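Dear Dr. L.,

I hope this message finds you well. Following up on our conversation about the binding site, I have prepared a predicted three-dimensional model of the protein together with NGO. For your records, I am including the exact sequence and ligand specification that went into the calculation, followed by the structure tokens. Please feel free to forward this to your student if that is useful.
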Amino acid sequence: MKKINTFTLAITCIAVFGMAACSSEPTDMTEAGIIPKPVSVTSSGETFTLSKHTDIFPEEGSEEAARIGQFLADKLNPSTGLGLAVVSGRGKPGRGDILLELAGGDVELGDEGYELTVTARLLKITANTPAGLFYGIQTVRQLLPARVEMADKQEGPWEIPTGTIRDYPVYSYRGAMRDVARHFFGVEDIKTFIDQMAAYKMNVLHMHLSDDQGWRIEIKSWPDLALHGGMTEVGGGEGGFYTQEQYKDIVKYAQDRYITVIPEIDMPGHTNAALASYPELNTEGKSPELYTGIKVGFSTLNTRSETTYKFIDDVIGELASMTPGAYIHIGGDESLVTKHDDYVYFINRVQDIVTAHGKKVLGWDEIALATLKPNTVAQYWARSENAIKCVQQGARVLMSPARFAYLDMKYDSVSTYGLNWAGYIEVDHGYSWDPATLVPEITSENIIGIEAPLWSETVSNLQEAEYLLFPRLLGFAEIGWTPSAMRNWDDYKVRLAGQGKRMKAMGISFYPSTLVNWDHQE
Ligand code: NGO
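The resulting structure of the complex is given below.
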């Protein structure tokens, strides 16, 4: 069917305009290769074309819809050169226009879903919420030729296949983690990553802000944390930290893209940078040197000192005031030199502190050893028995099993960067698992979602980080969004191949796995 359509179109084009004005873009919406794969796609075999007459009509009276419309215009204008404009509150959409409609009432679409209806005349996105409109726009980007992602002007035509997409996510938490403690990454690098996450409909960025090697966020009541604890990193480089203004800027940038930032202060272990900055946090009352190696499990806060809890209260208080999201992550992993009872006492007290600041607790799976509050969430990374313990206490789990979801694992034995303690994670392995069946005792009702962490012991700049992040991040985005019954590697690898030229156009330095038949051609 598709072949006939394309052929007919080509003949018509040659007859009417000559070959130059014609395109070989598919007119079959079901073949667009969208990632994450939408819940349903129905093709109607025609084409919608963006032109210099195209206007974007956001829902009247909604500033947020207007902002989303502007986001779309800003994405499409540099490459298309069409000068698309948002026309709030004026006139009615006509041929070739884009309509962003906040309708409400379509229960199936939920809080993040959207319906995209494309006819030859009009492109319409309908959603219950602005977030849904935003995700609809990400789909529209992927329905256009990949060159739309280029930063400079490209040749048209700018065609979109017609049809209807109804789409909504499986999990409400679709996250990635950036470790900025082992190696520091500046504001611009993080914003680049936020844009990449948004393109694949991810909605949580977990920032691992402190570890043995560095403290990366300014805390005004304890200034040496950043000034001293932030001055180095793995390998002895210069490190760095975010001022509170810079951090708020990241949080806002993410929020504008429907991404919630969850800050993590890892404790009571993984705290050498803090311990080196303030002697009173140490059990011995004496500060160690700053640390630039990659060993884990040797540091602990003094869990039986009130100074420690005053410190934590101050730090969490300042962080909470910069955190619009519901969660603060307290770490809790690998506190190998903290006695069991001290650890349990500590985690229980820190849960109270976080709650007193109006936030919920997230922590690595070891926190299940403590008495979890019902709204605390444990992040399963290593030990399923911990995750099960969490569920038995009535708390929920975030799925980040290291052997599938750790973005810092090497692809194979010859990978340039990465670690391999949890095994190699080739692109197919990272994609082919289901959070809801991985641990039999943990079912979908117990799971808030999935998160893929990028630990940064072996990567120190944007290109190195992107080598590990991409293309695997797209697979994790799809696991978080698309029902598992609709996912399989053979179908995915073809769609991923198509994303190669998109990632290239976005400037992403991805790892060209030989399992994928990359399609770099436009
Ligand atoms: C572990 C460890 C981190 C390492 C990471 C490396 C957790 C939760 N704690 O994951 O400190 O950076 O592995 O893969």
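In brief: The pocket of NGO is lined by residues 296, 333-334, 364, 381, 406, 408, 419, 455, 457 (CB under 6 Å).

With kind regards,
A. P.
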